[in-house]
Known about the structure:
Layout: E1 2-13, E2 16-28, E3 33-37, H1 44-52, E4 59-64, E5 67-68, H2 74-83, E6 85-88, H3 100-110, H4 115-128, H5 144-156, E7 162-166, H6 174-190, E8 194-199, H7 202-207, E9 210-215, E10 218-219
Parallel strand pairs: 3-8, 3-9, 6-7, 7-8
Antiparallel strand pairs: 1-2, 1-4, 4-5, 9-10
Amino acid sequence: MLDVIHITKSYRSGRGHLKALDQVSFTAAPGQAVAVAGRSGSGKTTLLHCIAGLEVPDEGRIVCHGKDIFQLPEKERQQWLRTGVGIVFQSGNLLSYLTVSDNIAFPLQLGGWPRGDIVRRVDELLQRIALPHAGGALPHELSGGELQRVAVARAMAHRPRMVLADEPTASLDTATAAEVVKLLMGVCRQENTILLMSTHDQAVMAAADRTVSLMDGRIDNTPPGNR
Length: 227
């Protein structure tokens, strides 16, 4: 279970302090897909960064499966980042000089997985993303949709408790975006992983189990038709 409790985050600006998040609270259950929706500048990416432990909020708590992330010693928090969280970036963010298989294997190597376990996990994920013969390809040889599928596999490789996807469909056409979201949600459900997707795509919101809407850093409870 993920509990986001009264998260507030501000940044310094030329006019003083800009409040990016203001008392944001919600929960998400294992296997549940939650769309974090809002316009550009609403606080979506900042919220995901705080939940991942990449940024420290000014106030509030983030508790995932009993771990109060910002109460952990720094070494344990870094360990949580490596093992407990998977991230899907908007552009895929694959390492251009590594093959598809090596990109997927990268977080497992960092985590000290045995070689045999890495090979088996990579093969399993290549099957799941319907790219069983692409392991030896380099990123530049893949389409945009294929790159995002590999990014999903890499994010899931180390069996994280939570996956955060920041605008995962932003650079994709409608049909490919739907395929990537279906894959992402399917893999997370199979592995009982919490999934948070920041988006302004109505199709992603419709596919998710529920939507948390942000406006100017606050939870927006206005009915969608009235926004």
